[in-house]
Every structure is written in C-alpha cells, then in structure tokens.
Amino acid sequence: MIGAIHETGAINNMQQKVHKLFANIVDARYPKPACSACDLRDLWCLPMGLKGQQSKQLDGIINRRKRVKRGEYLYRAGDPFRSLYALRTGFFKTFLSSESGQDLVTGFHMTGELLGLDAICNDSHCCNAIALEDSEICEIPYSELECLCREIPALQHQFHKIMSREIARDHNLMALLSCMHADERLAAFLINLSQRFQVRGYSPVQFHLRMTRGEIGSYLGLKLETVSRTLSKFQDEGLISVQHKLLILNDLPRLKQIVERNHSSGALCKS
Amino acid sequence: MIGAIHETGAINNMQQKVHKLFANIVDARYPKPACSACDLRDLWCLPMGLKGQQSKQLDGIINRRKRVKRGEYLYRAGDPFRSLYALRTGFFKTFLSSESGQDLVTGFHMTGELLGLDAICNDSHCCNAIALEDSEICEIPYSELECLCREIPALQHQFHKIMSREIARDHNLMALLSCMHADERLAAFLINLSQRFQVRGYSPVQFHLRMTRGEIGSYLGLKLETVSRTLSKFQDEGLISVQHKLLILNDLPRLKQIVERNHSSGALCKS
DNA sequence: CGAGTACTTGAACAGTGTCAAGCTTAGTGG
DNA sequence: CCACTAAGCTTGACACTGTTCAAGTACTCG
User: Residue A102's pLDDT is what?
Assistant: First the structure.
C-alpha cells in the first residue's frame, strides 16, 4: 500500500508535466488546427511521418476543430458518411445498437485515434460514436483525404497502416472474446488501457476509467456484475486499487501473468 | 425430408451451371490471370467498378496465379509482408497461433476475398493463412498496388472499401462473440455461409463445410463438443440435415429467427 | 439536498466446458 | 481393392464459470 502511494506521487508529477505540455500545444494551435504543429504526429495519427510541406497540405483539408461534449454523439449509425474524425483530446466509445435496445461497445478511443473507418464501405456510419468526456476532434473530409492520398504516398501509406492496424486489433479482441476467462479479459483490458495511457504520456499505473462497468462488460463480453466482482477480486489480491472510477495498478507484472499464463502470445494486450 | 430432397435436386442443377461457368472463365484466362476478364469483378474484389483500361493496368501488376494445395500455408505469422492475395477459387482459414499451441481461427475466406490486409500495419503477417481445399490465388504486390491506387481513384476507393468492410465485419463478429449463445452463434454462422455461397452462385441451402467442428468452434468461441451438440440439436429439430461435412438447411427462416429473436439487428449475418 | 444512476455483493441457476469412451470417415499403404 | 490407422465426430456425465435476480449502498448531477 505504501508502495502504491509513492508511485502515485511520481505519477501526479508526470501527469502535471504532460498536462502542461498539452496545454501549450493547444494554445499554440488556435484558432485553426494544424497537423504540422500537432503533437499527435508521433502517435500513429495521420500526419505521422509527413514532412513539413506535406503536413501543411493535410492541414488544408481539415475542417475546423469541433468540440463534442460528454454524452454527445459524434455520429450515429445510419448517418451519411462524409468524414473521418481524428480524436485530438478526450475519450470516445463506439457501439452498435440493435433494435432490441441492446448496445454493444466495439471500442474505446483515445487521443490520436481515427474514428469512422468502418463507414467507408457503406457510405454510411454503421456504429455510433459518443464522447465519454468533453472532447475535441479534427474532421477530415474523406473524399479530400482520398485525393490527398493520391498526391502524398507517405500519407497514403500511413492511412493504409491505420486501417490495417484496426483490423489486426479487432482480431486480437476476437481472440480475447473467444478464449479468455473473465479475469483474463479484464487483466488484458487494464493492461491495454495502461499501455495506451503510457504512450500518450500519462501514467501507466494510475488513471480514471471513463466508462461504466456496464460498458466495460459490453466491450469484454461480460455482465457488469462480473466486471465488478472481478475488479473486487483483483483488489482483494492486491493487484489493483479501485475507488469508483480511479484505478491504480499495483502489480502490473502479476496482471500480465494472468493473461500470459494461458495465452502466451500476449497479443491481446496490444493497443 | 422429401422437401429437402427436391431442393437438393434443384441445387445440383444450379451448382453444375455455376461450375461450368467458372470452368469457362478459367479456361479463357490461361496462361495469365486477367482482372479485366475475371468473374470476381462483380464480387467486391479489387477490380469491381473499374473500366476496361483500368482493369488492364491492374492486370499488369498482378503476379502469376499461384496454386495452394489443401493444407498448405499461403503465409505464416511473422513472414515479411509484400503482397496481398485475392482468392480466385478455393477456401482458406486465417488464424492466430499463440506460443502455448492454441490456434484461434479469425476467418474463413471464399472466392473474391482479399487476404493479408492485417499485415500492412506491421510490414509482416500477423496471422497464418492455410488452404482448406485446393485453391488458386492472385498475388498482388502491395507497393505496386499503392502506386496504382494513386493513379486510379476508383481502385483506390474500392481498396479502401474492402478494408473498411473488413473492419465492419469484425465488429459484427465481436458482437456475436460478446453476446450470443451457442445456438445463436451457430445459426448466425450457417446463415452467413449460406449468404456467401449464394452470392457466389452456389446453393444457399446445401453446401459442404470445408472446416472441422473444432475450427468452427474456434471461430465462434465454442468448444468442438458444443458445436457438434448444437448441430445435432438443430438436426433433431428439423432445421438442418448434417451428414458429416454435407449440410442442408431445411428451414432458413426459422434459423434466422433464432438469431433475430434476441438480436434483431441481424447485423451478425452479414457477409 | 434529493433523485436517479452506477456500483457492490449474495444466492441460485443455467449454459458451456471438461473428460472420457466409443464410433465414423478419410487417407495410406500393402 | 481392402485393411489399417489416425483424425474427426458424437454423446454422456459431471464440474464450473458466469449469468440472473435481488437487495442494498454509494455516488453524481441538477
């Protein structure tokens, strides 16, 4: 427990630094977003690997930044597809909804990720995207992106990579859903979140869950009661500390063991 | 039962016609494959929507057709990524394998489908592809495809659509794995196969399963015993007739009811 | 501060998984 | 062509994980 508190202190420092960094960049970017000045370029977002001039071309097609408040939809299933959305700051969930009223969460999305890729095939969105916290997105008109991809090979390649990664990621999630137990799923989920926060400069061992237990359950193919019980179990075992939405990972290595014991590829923890 | 036999007769006729059709096309195509003359152009394969001249450009980059015998690998996880593969005839499964020796089937692939899309992000294949029957594929060097996409907007758009569809499809499969019972999963699986056979000109109500019960189970997140039991149950209820690998769907509407009762979107049966 | 939502926990139950045995089929080699 | 073998399949009995239903608690937001 004492160890946990020490760690937490270090984390707070780190988070403060990162927050400052982000704040600076946001200030510098007003009033128009600029891929060329965007901190997400290191994060597999579209501008990754582009040179100065090319980035500016990408800036040219990106519509003004849009704010999406917590609880608001970015798009709904059935909406006509015009644009992809790069998530600048915030947190989204995407979900399918069936007529019977059951929602199924297909993903949680963080800074730097691209939303709407599954809509290209239909010319309409086939899932819903809703902000789980106040967020900011860059709207990228798809037809213009296609044009630009024809001019800038590096952009084209990066775009293909992003789509491909989405496919590979889904396959890993399918693996999780097919053959993991509740505790393994949850451990994999926490490790995944941890890694994604870390890449973005946040603490990998302490973070706020933006989603409810029910949403986690929906994503992992479990009922919310099972999620709750499993979190409690992890806490009893000293692996984590949970206080409502605040999560501290006290023993990341042992958490990884839970996943790797039966699924040594570790593929399931990938972003 | 008598109804089933009548249906079967009709199906055999249909299948013969289709086989003939395919045979003609195959003959016409020797010794080099030609997208411009390929029957798969109606099937969401890459040449879909391309005009004559454009198709020929695509022909230009496609390497000679390759045969893959049943049981042979088309590629393995870890192989360097150079090409995508369009499946001309035959049947493949793709699967992840973990070090612990567990395989996990991520997809079954039929004529007209594109394999290897998940490898773009890593420059190496992250799953294995193995032929479940003697097959023929067109190898499409990826870097040349990217070049050509920059020249032919219609090809670029079609390629993006194919990737997007793969993502949307995976989301539907995740939905199946997250919230369906064994009988619903299997019903959805059979309907899916049925529709894919139908689109390809084969009977939607009678076909050979190319995969084992274990592979079906792996794909659907069930054990092979459960697959076997559920098939037996469906047979007892008169929904289907199974004889080893030969499958007859006697009551497609009722099969659909099983899926739609609890999951009315029906999304899960999509291609 | 109050109402509604989210969360935790318990107990009973159902659906799959596990283990085991026996059967069928396909493929191999004599 | 037949016999043999290995792989695939079916079925039963039982165990166990996760779900369901229910009750109570804690938080959040207006």
Answer: 83
